[in-house]
Amino acid sequence: MGADQVLDGDGRASDRRGMILFLAARPVTSPRPVRPAPRRARLRGRFRFGFRPLAPYRRIFAVPGTRAFTAANLLARLPMGMLSVSAVLMIAGSRGSYALAGAVTATGLAATALAGPWTARMIDRHGQSRIAVPATALAVLGSLSLLLCVHYGAPDWTLVASYAATATTPNTGGMSRARWAHLFRDDPAARHTANSFEQAADELCFLLGPVLATLLCTALAPEAGTAVAAALLLTGVLLFAAQRRTEPPVAPAPATGRPRSPLRLPGLPPLLATFLATGAVFGSLEVVTIAFADAQGIRTAAGGLLALQAAGSCAAGLLYGLLRPAGHAGRRFLGCTAAMAALMLLPLLAAATGSWAALAAALLLAGMATAPTMVTGMGIVQALTPPGQRHEGLTLAVTALLGGIAAGSASGGWAVDHLGATGAAYGVPASAAALAAAVALLTARRGPSRPPVPVS
Which parts of the chain span the membrane according to its record (predicted)? Predict the structure, then answer.
């Protein structure tokens, strides 16, 4: 066999020289240059990359039915920021007494603290669609009764009784959070994103609600704000209750009889105390900021200053939802409350300079700590309460916040009267934030007496 022949695997000879000549005869060509992608394609790639961080929100709203119940709930939640402002403007404009208006709304707040958990307990036992609609109808009748009593000059006590009837308004935000908790019972990351969105929605509704109420009451008629808020509430709840496929099922009654109150669940009372202090931050910050703006001669800008605080919280809530929660929820809650206590020092320092521009920036930054605190806290409430008591647990958290707001408003007013509308009055929200962090720290050191109930 020649030197240019080899044996292949089957023992047959193959001519290596022929292969070499064949390859040598092929024309030599340079490799095809790689052309850059068209500009439109490059922009498209950047566009997609820029919106990739929103994937967690696209993921939760890809579940069938979530967009429908969210839109309906936002419609029902917007009046939460309208009703009290509309009542104050309507009563003060017709009766000429802010004291009467404050007494009426304070009575309604106290009635809500009593009736709210009871309404939530009925929703836990019988379902959202069966209880939320009649409870909302009763609340709307109370609002319409208040409107008629004010318009026709009824006695003052009728105003108090009418507004107290609105206390049956269901916790619309809590019902939405309960649906997310049921849909993503096995996905903590998705629940975190959903809770972050809900907190941002709360901030948005309480930002737009007072503005819309003021516009309606001043531009149309004193009764317009209450009438529109009642119509939006009833329409939103009816649309929300119609979304049955995402409604969480009613948990079976325990075999041992009536379940114990969520207030007796280990770990929940200290958490509610933290919410109480956090509500005091909100209430006192509002009163002190209005007084500061009035003292600076820019009272009309007080709403804008408070809007910056809500905008900061809303943006922080949305950004917080993009993060994947890591570590123990109690430690994250402690970190959030500590950050809130630190950032609440900024308005105190800014107001001491007497500059409203510095205060505006400080309020924007201070608001960025409140949403993560509320998101983490509400997540812990959902983990601590069993599925059959989730609405009641969330409503108790909201009740604690409302109680804190009332106490904070009173404390902020006292500080303004005794310390003046200066930077010193901002010590009240700073102290309330420090108290919230201290309660969270003491709770974290004690540690839970039992592991949290898994969200199911």
Answer: 74-92, 98-119, 131-154, 224-242, 268-292, 298-321, 333-350, 356-381, 393-412, 424-444
